[in-house]
Design goal:
By secondary structure, this protein is α/β, with parallel strands linked by helices. It is built from 14 helices and 15 strands. Helix 2 packs across helix 11, helix 3 packs parallel to helix 4 and helix 5 packs parallel to helix 7. It is globular and about 65 Å long.
């Protein structure tokens, strides 16, 4: 495994021939995974924890002999949350002979969707990108493999309904979101549910870079006074929203965040667990270290005389990295088995991904079932709530309003 910084122009041209030659002589018992990451850009608050989790799971597999006898080599490129380096990363992965690609970021996924199909190289976009990619027949090479923004929005409404006594009729919900395509993605679902459930929806957009929202919070708490707030912020924005809402006296027990405003780092940056008490978060992977796979990773490090990875401090994102790597490995395992042990192609791994069924990673992830028709895997989430100085699981895996989501999926071109 290696961490490769993004490179440009002449460096790309000069290295292309050598990389192609290297790929041609790749070891027969090796498979290559491409990993896009942001360790230095606008969303480094996620990448510096998520990407180490990915690497650690692959290292664990390799320490046990790999996947069906194949060792995994991960090529990571830091695209700094920029589209051009993400496009170049895709070309690098192709030259390295990657059989799959872990995407990172909604703009990057949108830019690469057509290229993935042209090159027949599958890419995964867990919890981001377009929700329409759930439909694998329309988006054959993009796999959300976790709750999409539509599924998250639907789950947030269902959770608010439950918290407000089982009915939203006549209630007011505020949607506080980062003003970009990712932030706007759940709107179509929220607006539809506002009509069917009878609640008033008002939106509050936060412009980039998302660290100033005093006006929006004042409008929410002083003028609109909603019964519930659904927040969809990321980067450094979630901690700002927690502090602002707390400062204006709004009960955080009436706030639920979608998945990218849901980490320990957001809570600490807001002033700590006492400040964020009651704050609800949606998760598509379990939180904390009480999972066998995390214990196995730690045991691997300890056997090498090394400390437990520091990235586990933010388990929300670290565990998601582990989850992504584990699903990649499961799809590859399915592909190798289907080929009788032969080295798989990306097309084989695509079929292997569409054969993932009943995968839970020991309870860390929901019961994944990925098919040709459903690249999302079911759209399951859990709610974890800040309580008593930590994030506490608040119920089992659930999903909501699948009929509404399926209606919108059917209408998507």
């Amino acid at each position: 495994m290696k961490h490769t910084r993004c490179w440009l122009g002449a460096a790309f041209a000069a290295g292309a021939v050598a990389l192609a030659a290297g790929a041609a002589f790749a070891q027969d018992k090796e498979v290559v995974f491409g990993l896009q990451c942001d360790r230095t850009g606008a969303t480094q608050t996620v990448g510096i924890f998520l990407c180490p989790g990915y690497h650690d799971y692959i290292a664990l597999l390799n320490s046990k002999g790999g996947i069906e006898g194949y060792k995994i080599r991960v090529v990571e490129i830091d695209h700094e949350y920029k589209v051009p380096p993400a496009m170049e990363a895709h070309e690098r992965f192709k030259l390295e002979g990657a059989i799959l690609e872990s995407l990172y970021g909604t703009p990057q996924t949108a830019a690469l969707t057509k290229k993935l199909e042209e090159d027949k190289l599958l890419g995964t976009s867990p919890g981001f990108g377009t929700a329409a990619a759930t439909d694998g027949k329309k988006f054959p090479y993009v796999f959300p493999i976790a709750a999409s923004y539509w599924s998250q929005g639907a789950a947030a409404v269902a959770f608010a309904k439950n918290e407000l006594g089982g009915s939203l009729k006549g209630k007011k919900i505020a949607y506080l979101f980062y003003d970009n395509p990712a932030g706007k993605e759940p709107l179509v679902i929220l607006e539809d549910l506002a009509k069917s459930e009878g609640f008033e929806l008002r939106t509050f957009a936060v412009p980039a870079p998302g660290v100033e929202m005093a006006a929006q919070i004042l409008d929410i708490t002083g003028r609109y006074r909603p019964d519930f707030v659904i927040a969809h912020l990321f980067g450094r924005s979630p901690s700002v929203s927690i502090k602002e809402l707390k400062g204006k006296g709004y009960p955080l027990s009436k706030v639920v965040s979608l998945v990218w405003g849901a980490s320990e780092a957001d809570i600490k940056a807001a002033g700590g667990y006492a400040v964020a008490e009651g704050y609800h978060t949606l998760q598509f992977a379990g939180v904390g270290g009480d999972f066998q796979v995390i214990k196995d990773i730690n045991a691997m490090y300890q056997s090498q005389g090394k400390p437990v990875p520091a990235a586990q401090e933010v388990s929300v994102y670290y565990n998601r990295g582990v989850m992504i790597a584990a699903i990649h490995a499961e799809a590859t395992r399915n592909a190798i088995k289907a080929k009788g042990g032969a080295r798989p192609t990306s097309e084989d791994v695509k079929k292997g991904m569409e054969s993932v069924n009943g995968f839970t990673l020991g309870g860390m992830v929901p019961p994944m079932e990925i098919t040709e028709a459903d690249h999302e895997g079911g759209g399951w989430v859990q709610v974890w709530t800040v309580k008593g100085g930590k994030l506490v699981k608040n119920g089992d895996w659930f999903r909501a309003y699948r009929d509404v989501l399926n209606k919108h999926l059917a209408a998507t071109n």
